[in-house]
Amino acid sequence: MPAWSTHLSSNYFPQFAIALVKSNLWPGAYTVATGRKFENIYYGFGHKYSPENYSPPAAAALQGEYAADAEIAEVDDPTVEEELALKAAQQEAEEHAEEEEAEEEDEGEEGED
Question: Given this model, what pLDDT does residue 86 score?
């Protein structure tokens, strides 16, 4: 098979006919010409011609779902009241730790005197 096929748009009026050149190697590649003017266009899928039909490879088998355990289980978002209670508890624990730290420093200073 030749790489290119040629056609005329009209045999009745050759002086007004447009020449069409079609690629047999790359389906979708065309050139049209009239006089000294021409235009190229490609309207294809980017696959070279093959006498056998193209069949894409089969997709890989689907993987099973990840086994869920307690570490990745979804939990409900806390309510505003729960968040405020948590912040209050954290602040209270922080103040208590600072008081204990201050008491330990006071005891250490009294022992040095």
Answer: 96
